[in-house]
User: Which sequence fits this backbone?
């Protein structure tokens, strides 16, 4: 069987497939190798994922993950998986490559990811051949949960958020400046923490402040990412990610205003990856 992992900033989805069999999709924590150790990846696989699948016979692993860029990170994930499943082939690719395969299959096109982080690229039907660097939640990741969360937190702490919303925000989170700053600058998973505040936006999206904040952030994603590819007006874009899914109506409007058409949007590409690997095994 082929074990597929689709790992984002917050969650990893796992599934084992063969021509005649498929396990259920098993969730685990996000396994970005920039933030978790090899031991953590191994332990999640051995203690959570494989037992939940009833320990199927695995012949090959395809791991698509956030943070899987550069030889060191690719080797770290491959070594961790091989320590749990020795002597099998482990393929490690970026989460963007996984999104492209899951949403576009063997067809070329543009792919965007807007979840805890954000990313974009052009896929030629086999590989990502163009990619504007996302730069992470400090320097980039426009439109993402982390980017939106930063704006919410800053507006709350500076008194920019409308008072009614600010009072609700404080009642829900008990948010105090020192606690927030500590979690952002000294926490283990700061982007995940910051992105957690997006739920407040989603719950209050009918408020003008919340809608405009989301629109502005998506506009920044287009300006600082998609526009840099020089694609002609009317270009179709496939989009995946939790933030894209929850705010898909606004996202489609922003893309349309900027000359792009969203061909499809989904919360995550795992179902498409299962289909892809069945058809291309």
Assistant:
């Amino acid at each position: 069987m082929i074990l597929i992992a689709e790992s984002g900033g917050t969650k990893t989805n796992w599934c084992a497939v063969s021509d005649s069999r498929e396990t259920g999709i098993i969730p685990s924590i996000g396994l970005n190798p920039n933030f978790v150790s090899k031991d953590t990846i191994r332990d999640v696989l051995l203690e959570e994922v494989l037992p939940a699948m009833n320990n199927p016979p695995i012949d090959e692993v395809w791991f698509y993950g956030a943070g899987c860029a550069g030889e060191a990170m690719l080797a770290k994930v491959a070594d961790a998986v091989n320590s749990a499943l020795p002597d099998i082939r482990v393929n490690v690719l970026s989460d963007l490559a996984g999104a492209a395969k899951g949403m576009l299959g063997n067809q070329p096109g543009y792919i965007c990811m807007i979840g805890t982080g954000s990313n974009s690229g052009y896929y030629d039907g086999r590989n990502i051949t163009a990619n504007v660097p996302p730069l992470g939640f400090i320097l980039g990741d426009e439109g993402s949960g982390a980017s939106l969360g930063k704006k919410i937190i800053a507006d709350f702490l500076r008194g920019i958020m409308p008072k009614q919303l600010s009072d609700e925000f404080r009642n829900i989170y008990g948010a105090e400046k020192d606690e927030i700053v500590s979690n952002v600058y000294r926490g283990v998973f700061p982007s995940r923490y910051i992105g957690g505040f997006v739920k407040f936006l989603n719950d209050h999206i009918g408020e003008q402040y919340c809608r405009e904040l989301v629109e502005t952030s998506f506009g920044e994603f287009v300006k600082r990412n998609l526009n840099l590819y020089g694609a002609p007006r009317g270009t179709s874009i496939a989009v995946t990610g939790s933030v894209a899914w929850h705010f898909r109506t606004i996202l489609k409007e922003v893309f349309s205003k900027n000359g792009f058409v969203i061909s499809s949007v989904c919360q995550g590409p795992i179902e498409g990856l299962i289909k892809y690997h069945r058809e291309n095994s």
